[in-house]
């Protein structure tokens, strides 16, 4: 169960409202790298977590935090839209800078939300919950979380570099710091579970003697001319999970050309595919 | 540029066609854990990669491999649909097992594809390219790839446990092994770049003195009663990236309650929000 | 800012796990009538609310409650999946009831989430945030909320009628009651703002003398034979908003047939559309 | 069955084509507040309506009208695109106003439709039929329709305020008036069915003694500090539906902390979640 | 402008309601091969058509017809849902046939629409208007229409083969016939514009001397071993458009390996990609 | 199975980077007319093809080619983003041209991809695999392919007309030529199968005596006043498929007004729809 405090987790101040930056900030709300994503991802992972209870608790804590980050960003978007132009009046169009603002902003900030945030990205595409990765496998989920916080921090850094508004920079410095923590936190959780090498191959509960071990640690090349694939840490030495030795080689097809045969009658295919169509099929085969 | 060989990378054999398993296999084609996703993700990462060339080469190699995996799975789906029922005829409905097959299969395998694979998941939802994570940050991308291969291997293992068809089990043993390799490969690539600890916080090119360091390594609790948050590897000791010390504490709001003021005239709000609506607003404020 | 308590708002108990009911319950999580929708809708309305502060407070309270409802339902889904079959083994297929369960359940509950809830509906379609209606107009938003709670309660009632599990019936009786309250609450909020009749036409801040008043209270018929349209409360008497008199009549076109002319050169049209294509266009015009 | 007349329902005239306004108008075609939505929503409600026939008739009439509104708006978009720039030629870029037009317009109006309307919103996102609310419950549907016409009229008003083109203003005055009527019409339909208070709680066919009446009229607070929730029309007095008395109070959790136990073997979880993974789980629990 | 007649274009009768067939019929409503698609596609093509007026008229006629087909199919779905089970009661589950019906049907037909049609496909995925192909090029649009009617008739034939309900078979015989006509109609329209060969290459208004004619009629092979590509009508002889001669050959890369260089500072990349990260990049390059 | 060569199929050169053209080029990558679509469409058609093997081979060849085209375009996007502005700094906003560039470009090229291509269209909407048309009917698929190449070439021509960058024009001349070939190729494939007239009505394996032949070649009018429909090649003469004679006439409804009766109890409808609601229903009926 959840509670709220009407205050914000961290101050949100906009010194000079900019509707273009409002559009950019939307990526941090409704983008795949944004806060709705991590908030809901951590909640669904927590609500479905089986195993040691402490991971559920940790996930709930940070999910709850992220909800407050959406709130901060939604506030920042609304404040950046304070003075946004509401019309295409000619005097505005004649002013290149003013015109460019209306042209460049997300028009739905005027038309749909009345100068407030929406759960969409910087292109106006709504967030889609298929991006909530919650696999039922704790290690896979933690990795998904490090990934989400990595693209999230890259996004926050790019927003930070884009603006020179002191209020916005201050808010982003806080959010960037939280992403630093959360990257560390999810990696620490993997350590807490025994470490990343031990976790691999995920799921580590599947017996590896039921996989085709000839291919479990082989880096395969698909160069047109059969050249040896590019070498690196991945092509020789002990595998990252410590359970095998990397090798590398060009790949050759081991299977045959598939043959699906003719189409069945009443399956909606053309006669030529079914074999009842007269001369065409016979001529061809 | 790309080339093809009509043969399959690995043999695909179905001993006893099962349209329900065809539906399940679709998750490995068009699901978010599936092969279209990794194929296209690695291609887009490669095509946009800036920095050392060898990562581009490695990404291209494995992207090219994954294209062949989609092909294998598409073949497996078509073969599992070989004898699928095409009608709801009464005798079939009366047969609980036969009826259940038609009821349970993806009807679009009959209606839309003519007994062949589609780029959809096990629920019939089409794959959506927003799941192609290619961030322009090499470490974030590699982590996204380990994540993708982790959920991919979990999926392959679940499919393996679901079927008892020897042909399908053989194919899945190969695919599970490849997922083992690819998890190791992307982690090895991070090692090759200097290691995961050094990579963090991603992006590591952003100077940490421009983040709010008070919050960079603090695990924050949001318990209703202000209790100390759950302890673990993430709450004390050196941070995973080696650049700080974990601390933990309950969080308090640092910001104020936001006040967006009244709505602007001509913004499409109600009069009561604008302040011109007569007594209501005055009564309330 | 937000807080959590690990306990549930109301007890969730499943007496006899049923993976088919788990699939049905998903509609109340990720369906357009479900709890993610109302939770996020109320949050975004609150975060963007301009005007009297008390509506923001009320929205925040109920949004926070709904987050706990998602949690309850996610728990219910996981508990209903407790004994779900993980394989298509022949003995199960031969058992019509067991087979039908596997056939009928959402296979992604096995393949993607490891027997836990997902943010998808009963067909497995992910929730999409475009359904978060937050218009910047308080009255429109309250109506959207009554609507959401109406379809929400209809859904909860249908789920209640579908199951005979005592634990699930108890939980649904609670959720149905909350939907009763929330329908009343949002209508009361409109009363609080002055009443529904005064709120109309939404937005009531737009001067009606800038609309074409000839058509503001006319019920128009489009019957092929020009018959008078069907009569009811909407075709005569004072309009619902008290600002006009209903009339009714068959409609005739007032505009002309549009003529977009020829296509422009270099616009990618066919020559015949541009006028340079030789005899065809001339022959026709 | 349906018929057409090539003439428009109301004249559509553009005095000064403006590709930016074409982009804005798209919201009224393919936006969630737009005409495709109401057209299809009323059709699907009509086609599925059970109960008194006159509601079906009324729905069909207005659905048919809305189809003509899409046509009007599509014509308006095409006319606004008449003189749109087709190239990024340098002289245009050097002209700040001209450049801003090309930059700001929906490029797909050039690239995909050849200067014509598309079923997308102002951000270029295609309309998605999940927004067709047709619940099988007449009162819920009527409320959904008032809501749709409310956001629809807010949108039309915002477009009206955005442009100063006399032709476009005239067309929008007509559409705004129709939205006024339709808001009144659907509310009148609810009156015709017995009134909004009697309709609640929707569905009113579900016996209220099968809901948990302790919570049916209670406004619950979720304030972190357990404060009394914000008071208003919703917190005391007779409920809007006249079937109860509003109360209010802070909420406490009534359920326990959920415990999903350990993950099942072969479910794709990590060993640490299953309990067979050795020391880790034991150490933790 | 549009009109309606409450009668159906063709009788719709269901002799034995079958909720599974209701689910299958949804593909013909909200599937990509279905009637919403052709209806809206023809309308948008008509509304944006530039050039000879008669094509607009023809498109409007058939678009209007298709609207009546959605109506017929929506009626057919509702009638097939007449006796659908509303509960998972134990006695039903114990009956394999009854259980299979509930398991197999679209649960949203109970939960969301109250036993009526929805604008979704047979998997429950909502129709998405991005499938409305209206390109501004008349010939491309006509081809898109033949394609739509081809997959549409394949779908109708598959539905016809799936059912043995006499009423449904009669309705489908009508719809199949209309698809026959519409395939012929759009091909005839291309003839009317001068013929398919003359129409190619679409758009035929683009001067072919501004394309790289070396590749305009060459069938290229991408066989791994450089083999000659598979021969057929497409590899030799006069091209279909009569404007060239088919040739064929294996393809070789004509471009170089792309080099995107290093990432820019402040672009959110890792240090190793930017060149400022110390030894790693230097070691690698 | 597939192979790669790191070189590009054709040179990609950008003489003057332009982030707005990068945005436009995205349509050719992730738009419905773009290269991901044809690439994946041909692959899925090939992988599911039943009937003569040579069509599979041809589809595989061209699918493989299209993969290389995505690569070319992704490279072109990245090169066009070389000098894109990364900030909203005031000096840039004050410069109308520079400001307009940042305003007009896809901000996600900065925020999400780090100056690289994404699988989205020119509006930033991600490509969705539902556009992969692979019907199991060879002729329908070939027509879908001609259609795809027609809108694809229209798009390439529009991009060609939009830019004056010599490198980009050269690349597009190549891609336009390939679209010319592919349009011819798929039409030639239909000829190879016996010709388009013989292929119709698709699927030609369905016996036409099982369709309602009264309507198989009739062009129907839906004019409000019962006028004869617009005449053309489609209204008289031998049908395109040579299997009938075109006729034309106004259409009249042949069915009755549908009556779905009352709603069932426990179906979630209002009492007024069920008949148990007291006087309302009786009063109305």
Kindly summarize this structure in a few lines:
With 285 residues, chain A is mostly helical. The first copy, chain A, has helices at 19-30, 35-48, 53-80, 90-94, 96-104, 108-111, 138-162, 166-192, 196-199, 271-274, 279-284; strands at 2-4, 218-221, 237-238, 245-250.
Describe the protein in words.
The structure is a homohexamer of 285-residue chains. The first copy, chain A, is mostly helical and 285 residues long. Chain A has two domains: 19-197, Ferritin; 208-250, no CATH class. Helix content of chain A is 48%, strand content 5%. Chain A has helices spanning 19-30, 35-48, 53-80, 90-94, 96-104, 108-111, 138-162, 166-192, 196-199, 271-274, 279-284, and strands at 2-4, 218-221, 237-238, 245-250. A three-stranded mixed β-sheet of chain A has the order 2-4-3, with no helix packed on it. In chain A, strand 3 and strand 4 (245-250) form a beta hairpin. In chain A, helix 2 runs antiparallel to helix 3, helix 3 (53-80) runs antiparallel to helix 8 and helix 7 (138-162) packs antiparallel against helix 8 (166-192). The first copy, chain A, is extended and about 65 Å long. Residues 277-285 of chain A have low confidence and may be disordered. Chains in contact: A-B, A-C, A-D, A-E, A-F, B-C, B-D, B-E, B-F, C-D, C-E, C-F, D-E, D-F, E-F. The interface between A and B is large, with 112 and 112 residues. Strand 1 of chain A pairs antiparallel with strand 1 (2-4) of chain C.
